[in-house]
TrEMBL record:
Organism: Anthostomella pinea
Region Disordered, annotated ranges: 446-466
Organism taxonomic ancestry: Eukaryota, Fungi, Dikarya, Ascomycota, Pezizomycotina
TM annotation in the entry: 29-51, 101-134, 198-219, 249-273, 285-308, 315-331, 343-362, 374-394, 400-423
Record-linked InterPro entries: MFS, MFS_trans_sf, MFS_TsgA-like
Highest taxon of source: Eukaryota
Entry's Gene Ontology cellular component terms: plasma membrane
Official protein name in the record: Uu.00g077180.m01.CDS01
Amino acid sequence: MAFKDFIKRRSLKARDDQRTRAAELTLRASLYPICLVTVLFFLWGFSYGLLDTLNKHFQNTLQINKARSAGLQAAYFGAYPLASLGHANWILRHYGYRATFIWGLCLYGVGAFIAIPCILARSFAGFCIAIFVIGNGLGSLETAANPYITVCGPPRYAEIRINISQAFNGIGTVVAPVLGSYVIFTFSDDEAIQNVKWVYIAIGIFVFLLAFGFFLSTIPEITDADMAFQANETHANADDKPFWKQYRLFHAAFAQFCYTGAQIAIASYFINYVRDTQPTSTDPLAARFLAGAQGAFAIGRFIGVFLMRWFKPRHVFLVFLTCCIIFIAPATNHDGYTGMSLLYVVLFFESICFPTIVALGMRGLGRHTKRGSGWIVAGVSGGAAVPPLTGVAADAHGTALAMVVPLSFFVAALSYALAVNFVPAYRDPADAFSTAEIGMVEHRTGVDEETADLGDEKATKSEHEL
């Protein structure tokens, strides 16, 4: 009997037509679920950083050109739309966030174990298939984790929360190239393959354990009814329109496609850029330079969060994205440490762009939040399109001049940053959430978050603030 009760309490099914206390979580109440979900951000930062290092490794060991090596990025990021608009979004809308987290982690673990025989066989095509499965897992995690962090807690701090969590993504991208520089480039090919095998074994075991941890954990399920309540309370009310008329959302998804494609292209060919512009450098040294650049990226997120405490997130976003364009332009024709330093600055300013597009793009979506998050995360598929274009340009004209490709996509993404700052239809919903009082005081709703019905709720505010 106790086991049946335990399984019932661990149910992965959440009803979206019921409002729960999760709509009004305070900073203190949201701390545990945010910390748990933040672990996922480190995981895909590590996976993505390791991929950039393996990109160069396969060029060396399999004698493939830069354009073909971008097949790793195409397989990884090409899986995102399949997850965010397909299976993961279906699970998110019909079951809930926790079920989607567990699903994504299991796919990640399966992909990691598939990768092992492919690595040992030195099969680039096989490894791309494994990376495609991993991409489906990580796409599932992003489909749930990004909106969850955005909506879990006071709405006015959404951009700050997601940037702090995404900062751990940045830490993962620093750790992976450093690890790669020691376990891949400093060993013979045979030894490096054995080392990479053990890395993926460790990843597979860890993510399955983490999936079990999510099964045992109790985290608030934030429903469509909760989000409709938030949109109504903040007077953002974008969800009173049909989903297909949410043009702000689709513009954000377009910006995410362009921005992410540019970011991935720069990171994917950073090692090539260093080798091409500094002929005396080595692959291990270039991998450590990449780790340093990713360190600048992670630091940028913390500094961006600090600035968002004093300036509106949309203003910080506009300045940072504009600086990406300003500093990558001269990197296309500078050699040596000057060009590499410019890319360091570009990665610093890239830092807050992805999570801020997510947060701003979902402002006021209300009951459309879960569907909308799928579209914004699908924009990550830009990482499958832009790196191959950059690789073709690099093979033909050199890696430095090829940076014109991500530059052009940064310019396209800037259209959304300008709109959210200067077009009232974009700006007003963003600002409405920035001043919301929801979650800023303790609420005693008496609402059971698993069984309560929207029509039966009665809420009263506590007198003291957290």
